User: Fold these one by one.
Assistant:
Number 1:
Amino acid sequence: MEKQEIRTFGRRHGKKLSQRQSWLLDNVLPTLKPTTGDILEIGFGAGEHVRFLAKNNPQSVIIGAEPFMNGVASLLSAITDEKTNTILDEYKNIRIWADDVRDFLRQTDSQFNQIWVLHPDPWPKARHEKRRLLSAEFLNILSQHLSADGEIIIGTDHWEYFDWIIAQIQRTELTATIADLDIIQTRYQEKNKAGTTNPKYLILHK
Ligand SMILES: C[S@@+](CC[C@H](N)C(=O)[O-])C[C@H]1O[C@@H](n2cnc3c(N)ncnc32)[C@H](O)[C@@H]1O
């Protein structure tokens, strides 16, 4: 029997969605199902950085993966015209996988130029540590989906998780550098800001 995968995310549903958001989930989300793409963002939350990527890389297909449906609904609201509910021109290159990214990676042959993971859930309690997404096993799967000169960019302001990720990278063939990036603030970065300084970023190459 296949070993059951450990769930790396919390809840899938939050507060009740607006009528428009429910409509977008039913009618627009199915039209955005990804097959292959150039840039992947994993766990996009409300999707601020997916939108930033889409605007700044108009020639690339940006795939966002997120199982939290309220986050998916927020992204859909932001990329569609309020009156017509059609996708705004600057966001026509966005595709959405509204589920566990590991399921998507099993079914795509994409070789990404960039894979972003911003503020992955730290699962700080020792008994939850196995739920952390960025294990060596998962990094190896990401590496298989990275183009030869592609990069995996990870940002976190949870220092214990940061050190743990470095230990995981050391169990893979990937190389890592610590970088100072000036990117837009995501919702989680805002939330955590009070407790820590700026996030640290890791850039991984094959
Ligand atoms: C702490 S939030 C950060 C959200 C966003 N990146 C930000 O910075 O605001 C982590 C997100 O990762 C998502 N996540 C966790 N495991 C995932 C998985 N296996 N596939 C896709 N997304 C996942 C969670 O649902 C959650 O929304």
Note: The longest strand covers residues 146-156.
Number 2:
Amino acid sequence: MQTEDMCPGTTDFKVIKEKKLAFEGVQDEIEVIGFISCGGCPGKKAITRAAEMVKRGADTIAFASCITRGNPIGFACPHADKMKSAIIAKVGEEITILDYTH
Ligand code: SF4
């Protein structure tokens, strides 16, 4: 959420459409069913928001690269690991989690 003012996720959508980087080799059609933020530090809302996406059909959750890689200003999320483990605990291991997009 801290990155929303400087990035609307354009490259995320581009690499999904072109099946590049984190989406390289995906054979199936990729349908984006939602694009959400963490809800602000420390990211607690990401857990219920991810669960809602799964409820609506998501089989994969991709963490945008601003979270784990700090794009575009080199400032990664200090809560990323905790957020990821809490999401896995909530949605289950059968949902694929991608650690970055590009
Ligand atoms: S630093 Fe992490 S918890 Fe804070 S707004 Fe960014 S992604 Fe969310």
Note: Residues 11 and 102 are 7 Å apart (CA to CA).
